Amino acid sequence: MKKISTLYKKDENDLSKVINEVNPENQWVIDGQGIATRKFDGTACAIINGDLYKRYDVKKGKQIPEGAISCQDPDEKSGHHPHWIKCLRENPADKWHFVAFDVLQEKNDGTYELCGDKCQGNPEKINGMVLVPHGCKKLEVIDLSFEGLKEYLSNKDLDIEGIVFHHKTDGRMCKIRKCDFGIKR
Questions:
Q1: How far apart are CA 108 and CA 18, in angstroms?
Q2: Which of 14, 19, 102, 125 is the most buried (most CB within 10 A)?
Q3: Could you say which DSSP state residue 138 is in?
Q4: Percentages of the chain per state (helix, strand, coil), in multiples of 5
Q5: Do residues 36 and 138 lie in contact, with contact meaning Cβ atoms separated by under 8 Å?
Q6: How far is CA 56 from CA 3, 149, 182, in A?
């Protein structure tokens, strides 16, 4: 799973925020070709051929681990190069990945978010550890404008990290998060 771009362009003066200008490669969302899904806040994982993997970012100048599966070409600006590396039961760093994997009813190949009380401070408020399939929770978002999405994500009753848009036919994705608008969760 490659890192996905933000629906709106980043503010060049503050890369933690977006400006009211759609990234050209994501115009398809504004054109009505996207399906809005909840973005869960955890750690990216994948099940590939029945085996559990975690995302590992090979930073500029670092060695790619043996057996790593590249998710995309290295980012030209940052040098980051995300990979999947296989989780190992004997690795203590993979303990919580396997706790979630072992209780997963259907171990379908695909990408997931590892969430729960031992991950990222548990912003999702999940008891235990779970693997949440990416794209599993559809959202009803009517107004896709900059102000419309900002208002949608500002709703105090909507406790989510953000939205991932999935193209209806070709697999493209992009995201928008509360923090992109300067909104705290």
A1: 35
A2: 19
A3: B
A4: 20, 35, 45
A5: yes
A6: 12, 30, 27
Side-chain-facing half-sphere of 163: CA atoms under 13 Å: 26
Please report which residue ranges of 22-109 form alpha helices under DSSP H. Answer: 27-28, 95-103
Q: Which of 44, 34, 42, 30 is nearest to 2 (CA)?
A: 44
Give the residue from 182, 114, 172 showing the smallest Cα distance to 146: 182
Domain locations along the chain: 1-40+137-185
Mean pLDDT of 47-75: 89
Rounded to two decimals, what is the model's pTM?
0.88
Residue pair 72/3 in contact (Cβ under 8 Å)? The answer is: yes
- DSSP reduced 3-state for 100: helix
Label residues 9-30 b or e (16+ Cβ within 10 Å = b): ebeeeeeeebeeebeeebebbe
Q: Which is it for strands 51-58 and 43-48: parallel, antiparallel or unpaired?
A: antiparallel
Q: What dihedral do alpha carbons 5, 21, 13, 10 form, nearest 10°? A: -10
Q: What is the mean pLDDT of residues 14-43?
A: 95
- Which ranges in the chain belong to alpha helices (H)? 27-28, 95-103, 146-154
Whether residue 59 has pLDDT greater than 90: no
